[in-house]
Specification:
By secondary structure, the chain is α/β, with parallel strands linked by helices. It has a single domain (9-186, 229-255), classed as Rossmann fold. 45% of the residues lie in helices and 16% in strands. It has a seven-stranded parallel β-sheet, with helices on both faces. A two-stranded parallel ribbon has the order 7-8. The two termini are 28 Å apart. The mean pLDDT is 96.
Length: 263
Amino acid sequence: MDLKLAGKLALVTGSTAGIGKGIAKALLQEGAVVFVNGRSEKTAGAAVAELSAFGDCRPAVGDVTTAEGAQAVIDAVDAAGPLEVLAGNMGTYKGTAFDQISDEEWHWMMNANLYSQVRMCRHFLPKMLARNAGRIVLIASECGIKPLTDMVHYSVSKTAVIGLGRALAEMTKGTAVAVNTVLPGLTMTENTAEYQTKRAAAEGKTLEQAMKEYFTAYEPTQLLQRMTTVEEVASVVTYYCSPVSAAANGATVRAEGGLIRSI
């Protein structure tokens, strides 16, 4: 299938590693011109150097959790031309007992996961609407629907991203612009792989054995009974970045291996 992304200008926030980097790679492989976003010249440059093997990849350096950093990213992209694809992947997580989450930690979480998305969409969505063309995909989490009690602030921030996506989609009625949200589950990113490998070793188990026991104990409703790969999640996101997915708008797309047990 031709996703009709060749030559389209795309920005993936939080894309020097993990799911974001996978999305950038997948878009490049479809022929898009991709801006990779990282907080520093070093991390963004390293990612661009690696991903340039797959296509036209450029750095957009800036911390989108700050107004100044977000503006630096916006300026870099705008200088290249009109943005046609925005994949909002910037985010963070932390496990903290609910009664121990300070106001400062709440603000940090909401700023990283929600306000970073707001800053990018506030600038680029009006431009897409004016041109009557563009795709926005916001990366949330299955925790936005199935919240975790040991990560309440994270879960709430992702629920807010889902709400943001639907609200922005309402603004696109009657246009060729679309806003959708994708919900990954536990994914084998670099950090996750390192953590799970160390955990398995500490328990005297193989990674395969430890992960099988994890899903049996903690995610028995997950239908794959394994972690999704970065490539699998990136493939879902890339489809919704494409004009081929024109029938989908305002959707909350699950890419969590069937964990959420509802229809």
